[in-house]
Amino acid sequence: MRKLLGFAALITLVASTLLSGCGSSSNSGGTTTSQTAPTVSSISPSAVTAGAASLTVTVNGAGFLSTTTIQVGGAAVATTYVSSTEVTATVPASQLASGAQLAVIALNGSASSGSDAPVNLQVSNPVPAIAQIVPASVVTEPVSQIRTQR
């Protein structure tokens, strides 16, 4: 019986150690941090022509951290921290190949600016231009000179 009580005491001690702090509002020395969602207010440039080379975009907003990352069109891009209100993002040429509106979203860990009003990078298809007309010339005759055969 004595061994059984000792074993029960040991189990109780282990369980209380494992569960201490779980669901508790007390802080036993550990720190809990939560990421603040960044905001994106504007980007520069905000438009580019499709087919452009890679592009560095300045992202303005608030709440940026040195660990903030930027997604453009759903893809993570290389990000450089400038300040708590500015980061730069390098958009690869592959994302600029054809016309689209690419959402620009900032992330601090899992906290995202995605629920804010969208800020988009506009990728516009180029305006079509006539490069050549073939044939370059056409011989025409006045209508009065056209004969009909019967």
SSE inventory with pairings:
Elements: H1 2-19, E1 39-44, E2 47-49, E3 55-62, E4 69-72, E5 75-83, E6 86-91, E7 100-108, E8 111-112, E9 120-124
Parallel strand pairs: 2-9
Antiparallel strand pairs: 1-3, 3-6, 4-5, 4-7, 5-6, 7-8, 7-9
What can you tell me about this protein's structure?
With 150 residues, the protein is mostly beta strands. It has a domain at 39-124: Sandwich (Immunoglobulin-like). It has 1 helix and 9 strands; from the N terminus they run αβββββββββ. The chain has one helix at 2-19; strands spanning 39-44, 47-49, 55-62, 69-72, 75-83, 86-91, 100-108, 111-112, 120-124. Strands 1, 2, 3, 4, 5, 6, 7, 8 and 9 form a 9-stranded mixed β-sheet that branches. Strand 4 (69-72) and strand 5 form a beta hairpin. It is rod-shaped. The protein starts with a helix and ends in a 26-residue tail after the last strand. The relative contact order is 0.18.
Which properties best describe this structure?
mainly beta, disordered N terminus, 150 residues, nine-stranded mixed sheet, 1 helix, rod-shaped, Immunoglobulin-like
The shape is rod-shaped
The CATH superfamily of the domain at 39-124 appears as: Immunoglobulins
Question: What is the structural class?
Answer: mainly beta
* CATH classification class of the domain at 39-124: Mainly Beta
Major sheet attributes? 9 strands, mixed
User: What is the CATH topology of the domain at 39-124?
Assistant: Immunoglobulin-like
Point out poorly predicted stretches: 1-10, 12-29
Relative strand content? 25-35%
Q: Over all CA atoms, what is the radius of gyration?
A: 32 Å
- How helical, in percent, are the residues? 10-25%
Count every beta strand, where a strand is a DSSP E run of 2 or more residues.
Answer: 9
